Amino acid sequence: MDPAAVLTEAGSVNERLTAGGDLWLRPWAPDDLDAVLCAFTDPEMWRQSEEPVDTVPAAAAWIAARQRHWATGTGYSWAVLDARSVVLGCVEVGAVNRRHGCGWVSYWTTKAARGRGVATAACRTASDWALYDLGLHRLELGHRLNNPASCQVATRAGYRPEGVQRDKLRYDGRWYDVEIHARLVTDRGFAAAS
């Protein structure tokens, strides 16, 4: 697919993606306010968010920001849902740079969805879409070194570790090293084997 087609038709091209099993992805919508608020009540989520998402206006602003990114082609964020349309998490291809053909992938799951393969399936699906449909060449993601679950998500979704950024993130007054992973469009065979 021509990447320009995705940009000009954002809102209708590949918005809903099947992530295998009973999981699917769709862009965030205003009706997701309660799900976003609930997800961000988890102390781990609250601690890592750039801004508190603890009120209805804050959740609405969080959703609106993702919708703006989609509309401008600078980021693509999906709610991850099960067959009953229950929100289990989020996956995003953000910081999209068309000139260099790259983007930054992030993901989170609700506390109840952790350990069930939800993040891996969502990350793999969104990454495949960004590389093979959107036409990006390189995707990156990072995780704290003390988060082995996120490292497993990355490697199972076809991302290869590339190095460590020292003191990259700061939470609760403490600095954390971050391991960077990347997946290239040419890594297709690696991802399929994972």
Describe the structure in brief.
The chain has seven helices and eight strands; from the N terminus they run H-E-E-H-H-H-E-E-E-H-E-H-E-E-H. The chain is of the alpha+beta class and 194 residues long.
Q: What is the secondary structure topology, with strand pairs?
A:
Elements (H helix, E strand, L loop, with lengths): L2 H6 L8 E2 L5 E4 L5 H7 L3 H6 L7 H17 L3 E6 L5 E11 L4 E8 L8 H16 L4 E7 L3 H9 L3 E12 L2 E11 L3 H6 L1
Parallel strand pairs: 5-6
Antiparallel strand pairs: 1-2, 2-3, 3-4, 4-5, 6-8, 7-8
Helix pairs in contact: 2-4, 5-6
Structure description:
The protein is α+β, with helices and mostly antiparallel strands and 194 residues long. It has 7 helices and 8 strands, in the order H-E-E-H-H-H-E-E-E-H-E-H-E-E-H. The protein has an 8-stranded mixed sheet with strand order 1-2-3-4-5-6-8-7, sandwiched between helices. Helix 2 (33-39) packs across helix 4 and helix 5 crosses helix 6. The longest helix is centred in the first third of the chain and has 17 residues, at 56-72. The radius of gyration is 16 Å and the shape is globular. Residues 23-181 form the N-acetyltransferase domain. Keywords: Transferase. This is Protein N-acetyltransferase, RimJ/RimL family. GO terms for molecular function: protein N-terminal-serine acetyltransferase activity; protein-N-terminal-alanine acetyltransferase activity.
